[in-house]
UniProtKB/TrEMBL annotation:
Residues 125-249 form the Putative heavy-metal chelation domain. It comes from the Bacteria. Pfam families: DUF364, DUF4213. This is Heavy-metal chelation domain-containing protein. Gene3D superfamilies: 3.30.390.100, 3.40.50.11590. Residues 26-99 form the DUF4213 domain. It comes from Arsenicicoccus cauae.
Amino acid sequence: MSTHTRTTSAPASSPWALYDGLTALVPRGITVTTCVVSRWALVETDADGAGLSSVPADGRDDPHGPQDVVGQDLADVAALVRSWDRRLAAIGLAAINAWCNTQERLEAHAGDVIDWDASAFERADQLVEGRRVAVVGRFRHLDQLASRCDLTVLERQPQGDDLPDAAAEFVLPEVDHAFLTSMTLATKTLPRLLELSRDARTTLVGPSTPLAPEVFAGRVDEISGSLVYDAPWCRRALMQGQGMASMRGALTLFNLRVRA
């Protein structure tokens, strides 16, 4: 069993508490100017904000949900993160990131920046040496990570030695470090994953991660995500049906310590 301890927030009355905290950050009076959805959702605003979120491959599609969010208030679009429609939930998370994931907010938390422009896995080698580690989601750089630790990958569509995501109930309580894909915010599985990994050192990772340490305090130890600094680049890539590999040059990565 992990010996890691974290000062946890008081038990929430509902798993929605995490989502309420994120949407409360988004002010009114900002308008969505662009929304592009493929495998990723991109939301841009008239305040020069831009945010990304991965669109879950599996899930419900609601034909009665809003089909066009352009021109709507960003706060209303952010509230879609609560939707059970996979596309709308991703748009909502991208809207949250359009407000949260900015250079200004990153500079405001500069004292907690661990590393710039490197993924959580690229910098984790020494941190996980000889430890039991779980990664929820399939990421790049995991082969190098696996060479240094006892690694279990949990994936909704498992490949090779991956375990199905349902194994999280058994695996996460026993690990020392858990890396959780931020796409689980859109799928609504993150609150349970955080509960299961409460005794582990926990990193929320991926381009969908909101830069919102004030919300994640007491829930995770680190957040690892990205800022969109070239929205037109991302927009063109998504409109051409391309994925994250084609957008990496338009993003700045961050790794941030979350204060308890």
